Recover the amino acids of this structure.
């Protein structure tokens, strides 16, 4: 996750974006039109880490007292959009400019998740199938697992997942290419799950990562 000090304000006059100081040396990026409203409150950096200690996500949040006297936390991006269920298009929780924020249901937000911590294949949507001794790709759509085939090469399996994610999830897809795990292809077939490969084997009810 990018430290806020790496954000730079626009060089235009007046600036179109502003930096809001958080805790732990982080800053959040907001549109200039939202700066005064946001900066009147104290915000902190909520940092989630992987088991190895590296940063997984960072969000700007503040503590808010509710009418009944109890406390809750509010995310800056939800405060700016005055709504719950808001996600970041670029998946950077510190980039809270309006053009980077969009409404998303819980399901849509889940579709754009990054690689799970427990993933063992190194690719999203790919898992090792012990019986077949191959890498199998699958995707979950509307609560159902769709098998995308099994392959000797995990990269091919990851490509199959990416094609299916783009087909079924559209702008909410988070592919292995987007995660930087695969190099981009000039054209990625979006006819999944009809992905063909000489080494493909049919598989059903296989566990895996979304």
């Amino acid at each position: 996750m990018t430290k806020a000090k790496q954000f730079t304000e626009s060089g235009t006059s007046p600036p179109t974006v502003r930096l809001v100081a958080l805790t732990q040396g982080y800053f959040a990026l907001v549109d200039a039109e939202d700066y005064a409203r946001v900066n009147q409150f104290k915000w902190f950096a909520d940092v989630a880490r992987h088991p190895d200690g590296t940063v997984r996500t960072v969000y700007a949040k503040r503590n808010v007292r509710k009418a009944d006297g109890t406390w809750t936390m509010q995310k800056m991006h939800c405060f700016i959009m005055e709504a719950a269920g808001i996600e970041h298009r670029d998946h950077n929780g510190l980039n809270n400019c309006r053009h980077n924020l969009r409404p998303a249901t819980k399901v849509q937000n889940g579709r754009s998740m990054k690689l799970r911590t427990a993933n063992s294949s190194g690719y999203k949507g790919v898992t090792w199938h012990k019986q077949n001794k191959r890498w199998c790709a699958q995707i979950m759509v509307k609560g159902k697992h769709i098998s995308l085939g099994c392959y000797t090469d995990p990269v091919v399996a990851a490509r199959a997942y990416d094609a299916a994610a783009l087909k079924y999830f559209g702008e909410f897809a988070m592919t292995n290419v987007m995660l930087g795990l695969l190099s981009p292809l000039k054209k990625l077939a979006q006819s999944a799950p009809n992905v063909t490969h000489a080494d493909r084997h049919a598989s059903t009810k296989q566990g895996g990562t979304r």
User: Anything to note?
Assistant: The chain has two domains: 4-103, 114-210.
